[in-house]
Design goal:
43% helix; two-stranded antiparallel ribbon; mainly alpha
């Protein structure tokens, strides 16, 4: 669902070869209460687990006080991340900080809480977590909340509230301080962009926080499977073998349901190493021989039985994302962001970097460049929709939303009729009624 919430409504995706599976509601912007997409039930399940941990863990004896503090810190960080996710999707949401352990309508049925109060809790939880983490280290695999990961969340939250919720320079400075703390940790920009996403290279030094996927332990990434091919026999003869080799073993199922739009693909230059690591065009040499494209960041692994498994980790934060956040913050504060942008471009273009140096310009011009750089760097990583909202560019960059600036309610999601029937005190998102 992070891909659906954070990517699918942007200009990134479009219909492909094998139907739509209902995805058209996202890229066509036809959401309604009857066709609302993922609801918040699972996220509130996570929040309740956090509430249970925060209630009972202080009473448990640990052999190490540091381990106890770390467990509590992770619960605070996870609850903050969960609420940060849903407040951006739906705005004000029910605020639940007490564990639900039995059916009680007085505690279960809650109305929406104003989003300002949700952000207050998020920021408080982040600070509680940071005070409890014993050190700046990562867990093996970098798939549990840590102090650097919580500082990444803090930078993200305060950058959002600075630009979307009126927090201004005060929140920008807080975000910048959090990033400076991250840079003290064991993080690095990998030399090879493609290596970030390889199944065999999970938990590499660019990763700050990821959700772990493992064979026989978790489900697979359905959104990634539905960008992929179902069978080689469906591919036209004009598609050369080297392209098929890049995609590799197919996986039976729904097939190539959606793909990256031409609008996005055409913005990558051929000397940008991120292009070939992000997608592959299936096409021949003829004028009408474009078949489709496949996203490559989540193509997983092939198990011992020869079946492809979409089990890459879902990356929540990585260091290059943080560097570009820093560029965005510095530019908003009137500070030259050249160092950060050029650091990202040096890896992207390698020996061709001299053709792509960034030179500081006006705030507006820099913002346009930073937003595009985030498109190239973070395509398919669940960031694009949030970036467009934060930069105020939703109605300028998404063709399906051109000339719809007056429909600001589209920045949020409707609540499904199923959720409304269960949560009787919750009102529908204004504009979707």
């Amino acid at each position: 669902n992070f891909f659906i919430w954070g990517e699918a409504r942007s200009e990134m995706m479009e219909k492909s070869l094998a139907g739509t599976l209902g995805y058209e509601r996202y890229y066509d912007h036809s959401l309604s209460s009857y066709y609302a997409g993922p609801d918040w039930n699972n996220i509130y399940g996570v929040i309740n687990i956090c509430n249970l941990i925060l209630k009972y863990t202080p009473e448990i004896d640990f052999t190490s006080e540091g381990e106890k503090n770390q467990a509590i810190a992770q619960a605070y960080a996870m609850r903050a991340f969960a609420y940060y996710t849903i407040v951006r999707i739906w705005g004000g949401v029910p605020l639940r900080t007490e564990a639900i352990e039995a059916y009680d309508p007085m505690t279960i049925q809650l109305p929406r809480t104003p989003k300002e109060q949700i952000f207050e809790l998020i920021k408080k939880d982040i600070d509680e977590a940071l005070n409890l983490f014993p050190d700046n280290n990562f867990s093996d695999g970098r798939n549990k909340w840590s102090k650097p990961a919580t500082n990444a969340l803090k930078a993200d939250v305060y950058l959002w509230t600075a630009k979307v919720e009126g927090g201004g320079n005060t929140d920008l400075q807080t975000a910048l301080t959090a990033i400076n703390e991250i840079e003290k940790a064991d993080v690095a920009v990998l030399d090879n962009y493609n290596n970030i996403f390889q199944y065999e290279n999970k938990g590499n030094k660019e990763i700050i926080m990821a959700i772990n996927f493992a064979l026989d332990e978790s489900g697979e990434m359905t959104f990634a499977h539905n960008m992929y091919m179902s069978t080689v026999s469906d591919v036209p003869a004009y598609v050369p073998q080297w392209q098929k080799d890049i995609v590799g073993t197919p996986k039976p199922g729904n097939g190539n349901v959606w793909r990256i739009t031409k609008l996005v693909r055409d913005q990558f230059t051929s000397d940008d190493s991120r292009k070939d690591a992000t997608f592959i065009d299936f096409q021949g040499s003829g004028a009408n021989q474009y078949f489709t494209n496949y996203g490559l960041k989540y193509n997983g692994m092939v198990d011992d039985g020869g079946i492809r498994r979409f089990l890459d980790d879902w990356i929540i934060y990585r260091y290059a994302d943080i560097i570009l956040m820093k560029a965005e913050i510095k530019n908003a504060l009137g500070i030259d962001p050249s160092e950060e942008i050029n650091k990202i471009r040096q890896r992207a273009y390698g020996t061709n970097f001299s053709n792509h140096p960034f030179t500081n310009g006006t705030k507006a011009a820099n913002d346009e460049i930073i937003l595009k750089e985030r498109l190239f760097e973070l395509s398919l990583e669940g960031k694009r929709w949030w970036d467009l909202v934060r930069f105020g560019e939703v109605f300028n960059k998404i063709p399906k939303l051109y000339n719809r600036e007056g429909e600001k309610y589209l920045l949020l999601w409707p609540i499904s009729t199923g959720t409304l029937s269960r949560e009787v005190l919750v009102e529908q998102t204004p504009g979707y009624e």
